[in-house]
């Protein structure tokens, strides 16, 4: 089972899951954390929600997608929570990647349908979707499946337009790209008190 939620909803239900995948802004003040043990296995990805590669900003990197897919595979038999701030863009892109991975090749349209059945407001981050297609070796089929649904959808078009406007007019609000090129995934084992980010090896 995979649930994709906003930060506020995830914070209320986080202990109902076997594993939690958090996607947060690099400079976020509000973060989902566990402060007592035992707690679910917890992977944290830090990246800005931008839909294209930007050499100056701490946007998505293939490392983030690879770690999310690997985390999903580790917890295929349990309840997995995936969240970002709004539960609309970054978390749905990674959720779609995990769903598509579990369904297998050739069922990309079903993966999109499954995502939308639980998250009708999903607007997956575009560059993360492209990375997921590549990581899963789908040869563009996952992108095509999503684009077929998005084509002509006025609400999604408006959402993407607003995101681009914020990026264009308020770049100072976005974290700059670190010297390593991206913020590596951090993980906490259930026997730790709170969340001490343990770097996950970059692929």
Please characterize this protein's 3D structure.
By secondary structure, the chain is an alpha/beta fold. The chain has a single domain, classed as Protein tyrosine phosphatase superfamily (Protein-Tyrosine Phosphatase, Chain A, Alpha-Beta Complex), CATH 3.90.190. The chain has seven helices and six strands; from the N terminus they run βαββαβαααααββ. Strands 1-4-2-3-5-6 form a six-stranded mixed β-sheet. The protein is globular. It starts with a strand and ends with a strand.
Task: List its traits.
about 200 residues; alpha/beta; Protein-Tyrosine Phosphatase, Chain A; 6-stranded mixed β-sheet; globular
Summed up, what is this model?
With 203 residues, the chain is an alpha/beta fold. The protein is 40% helix and 12% strand.
Give a topology summary.
Elements: E1 2-5, H1 7-13, E2 19-24, E3 41-46, H2 62-74, E4 80-83, H3 90-103, H4 108-118, H5 126-135, H6 141-150, H7 154-169, E5 186-188, E6 198-199
Parallel strand pairs: 1-4, 2-3, 2-4
Antiparallel strand pairs: 3-5, 5-6
Helix pairs in contact: 2-3, 2-5, 3-4, 3-5, 4-6
CATH class: Alpha Beta
Number of helices: 7
Beta-strand residue percentage: 5-15%
**Apparent shape:** globular
Query: Overall mean pLDDT score?
Result: 92
Number of strands: 6
What fold name goes in the CATH topology slot? Protein-Tyrosine Phosphatase, Chain A
CATH H-level superfamily title:
Protein tyrosine phosphatase superfamily
Rg from Cα: 16 Å
- Kindly state the percentage of residues in helix: 25-40%
CATH architectural type: Alpha-Beta Complex
Would you tell me the structural class of the helices and strands?
A: alpha/beta
Order of helices and strands: EHEEHEHHHHHEE
How are the strands of the biggest sheet laid out side by side? 1-4-2-3-5-6
Distance between the termini: 26 Å
Sheet of most strands? 6 strands, mixed
Unreliable segments of 5+ consecutive residues:
190-195
- What's the number of domains? 1
């Amino acid at each position: 089972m995979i649930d994709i939620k906003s930060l506020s909803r995830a914070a209320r239900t986080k202990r109902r899951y076997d594993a939690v995948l958090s996607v947060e802004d690099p400079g976020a003040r509000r973060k989902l954390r566990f402060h007592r043990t035992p707690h679910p296995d917890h992977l944290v990805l830090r990246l800005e929600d931008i839909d294209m590669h930007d050499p100056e900003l701490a946007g998505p990197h293939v490392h983030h997608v690879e770690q999310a897919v690997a985390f999903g595979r580790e917890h295929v038999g349990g309840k997995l929570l995936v969240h970002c701030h709004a539960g609309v863009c970054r978390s749905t892109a990674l959720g779609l990647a995990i769903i598509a991975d579990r369904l297998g090749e050739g069922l990309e349209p079903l993966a999109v349908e499954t995502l939308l059945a639980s998250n009708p407001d999903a607007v997956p981050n575009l560059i993360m979707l492209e990375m997921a297609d590549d990581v899963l070796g789908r040869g563009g089929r996952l992108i095509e499946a999503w684009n077929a649904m998005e084509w002509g959808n006025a609400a999604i078009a408006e959402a993407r337009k607003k995101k681009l406007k914020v990026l264009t007019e308020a770049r100072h609000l976005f974290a700059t790209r670190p010297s390593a090129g991206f913020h590596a995934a951090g993980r906490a084992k259930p026997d730790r008190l709170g969340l001490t980010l343990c770097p996950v090896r970059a692929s």
